[in-house]
Amino acid sequence: MRVIDLRSDTVTTPTPAMRRAMYEAEVGDDVYREDPTVRRLEELAAEIIGKEAALFVTSGTQGNQVAILTHTRRGDEVIVEAESHIFIYEVGGMAALAGCQARPLPGRRGALDPADVAAAIRPENVHFPRTGLVCLENTHNRAGGAVLPQHLVEAVAETARSRGVPLHLDGARIFNAAVATGRPAAELAAPADSVMFCLSKGLGAPVGSILAGSEGFIAEARRMRKLLGGGLRQAGVLAAAGIVALTEMVDRLAEDHENARRLAEGLAQLPGVAVDVAGVETNMVMVDVTDSRWTAATLSGALAEAGVRCNAVGPRRLRLVTHKDVSREDIDEALRRFESVLREAPDPARTGTVYG
What we know:
Helix content is 41%, strand content 16%. By secondary structure, the chain is of the alpha/beta class.
C-alpha cells in the first residue's frame, strides 16, 4: 500500500537534479567564505528576495532565531502574532537564546492589525522593556497557509518603522504566497528589514533556509549563526540543492495549491468532517472533526493505518499539506481512504471511550 504523506511539505525528497548538483558541487570552507556554491546560493537568494545580502542557515527556526539575536538586545520585547511559528514552535528560543520576552497579539488569519501593533509598542519608561522587533509570518502556518494581505504588512512595517522598531518576516513559505498572489516574492518581502525563507519545504531541497537583509545586518547575522553552531564547512553539497530549488521549483508550487483545493473540495463532501474550502489559499487544508465519535488524534491514527498521514493540530482539527511528492492521483486515493475510514467510526458504547 502506497503511503500518502500529508503531514507537511517538510517530508519532500530531493529531485534527481538536486542529487546531481549535490554530487557535482564545488566546495570549500564556508566559515572562511571559501565555498563558491554557498556564495552563489546566497547571491541568488538575495537577488530573488530583493535584499542586499543573504545567509545560508540550516533551518527556518535557526534563521528566525539568528534574526532575533541580530535585531535585539537582552531584555527586549518582541511583538509576535499569537499563533505564529516563532511563538508556538521554536522552543522558546527568543527567551532562551536572545533573552527576549514575547508580546503575542491575536491576529485575523495570521495578520496583525496595525493599530494593535502601534498600541503594543512600548513607550519610553524605566519600568518597561524596549520593543526591539516586530515579527510577521507569511504564509501563516496555523492559519492554514493563509497569505497575509500585503497592505497590512506594509502598514505594520510603517507603524514599526515610525517608532524605530525593525520588522522581521518569517517567510518560510513566502514562495507559496508569491505563486498564490501572482506577486514576486521580493515585493512581498520589501516592507521587512529581514526575511527568512525555507528551501526545504515546498521547494524540495533536503536541508536549509535563507536569511536575507541589508549587508550590515547579514554581517552581524553571520556572527550570530556562528554563535549557534551554524557555521558549516564544505556546505556547497547542501547549497547546490538550494540553487536548484530556487531556479526550478518555484513555479510548480501552483500544482500543490491546485491539489490542496481538490482535496478540500472532496473532504467538504464527506460526513464527519468540515472544511472551509474558501479559506484554502495555498498548500494547506485545515479539517475540523465534527463527528463526536472521533477526535483529531484518533482520526489521524486511523488514517495512518489506512496509509494517509496527517497531523492533529488541535483536539478536533487536522492539518493536511500538499507538496511535490503528492500527485493528483494521490489526492483522489487519499479521499477514498478518508471516506472509508470515516464510515468505520468507533462505537463509544463498545469502546467505553468518550470522544468530545
